[in-house]
Design brief:
Blueprint (H helix, E strand, L loop, with lengths): L9 H13 L11 E7 L5 E7 L2 E3 L2 E7 L3 H8 L2 E8 L4 E11 L2 H10 L2 H9 L11 H12 L11 E15 L7 E8 L2 E7 L2
Antiparallel strand pairs: 1-2, 1-5, 3-4, 4-7, 5-6, 6-7, 7-8, 8-9
Helix pairs in contact: 4-5
């Protein structure tokens, strides 16, 4: 695979690499928008989970969640977070660090409206990250909200929205033979992005 040509705009480079990942057959790369999100609690304990990227532009990387979930509670305590994408068939990784801010209600409403109805109902039914008293509680809540919204549009729950990670650092990792990997790191400064190269 030819070396990645330097691009001074890391968001443009990310979009290019995401497009490359999305072009890989699904049996080799089932979900190219999947990423790991690392957060830290107010007492310094880290946690990580897999999510799906829903939008990216110059202002940042957008994902959605239940605002009562563990990740949301941790983001409320510490707005700094990190993301990592891994596209194994391309031997590529992208690591992103920055500060997270909430999306607007209009953005959250617009995205929620695009979700299939079952996922909309699921957003109401899931008390994300909390303990169920008994097996079957989730299914019972799904049936409850199916009845509640029967014959009408499912509106976004007030406890469900999104976040935008505003990147301060973006690293692109490209696998190379003999573990001589290529690492480009973009660091945001007042004047723009500064590119540096790291040893593997």
């Amino acid at each position: 695979m030819a070396p990645v040509k330097p691009i001074r705009d890391p968001v443009a480079l990310f979009k290019q690499q995401l497009a490359d990942a999305q072009a890989v057959p699904r049996d080799r790369l089932p979900e190219p928008t999947a990423f790991s999100l690392a957060t830290v609690s107010d007492d310094g304990r880290p946690s990580v989970r897999l999510l799906l990227l829903k939008d990216v532009d110059e202002s940042g990387f957008v994902f959605y969640t239940n605002l009562e979930s563990r990740k949301a509670r941790e983001l409320g305590a510490n707005r700094h977070a990190a993301m990592a994408f891994h596209w194994a068939p391309l031997e590529r990784q992208v690591r992103i660090e920055g500060r997270v801010t909430p999306v607007t209600d209009a953005e959250a409403d617009a995205y929620f409206a695009t979700r299939e109805r079952g996922s909309q109902i699921g957003a109401w039914a899931s008390r994300q990250s909390r303990t169920m008293e008994r097996a079957g509680d989730l299914e019972a809540r799904v049936e409850e909200f199916q009845r509640k919204f029967e014959g009408q549009a499912v509106l976004r729950p007030p406890f469900w929205s999104g976040y935008r990670l505003e990147p301060a650092v973006i690293e692109f990792w490209q696998g190379r033979p003999s573990r001589l990997h290529e690492r480009q790191v973009f660091v945001r400064e007042e004047s723009g992005w500064r590119l540096q190269w790291l040893y593997p």
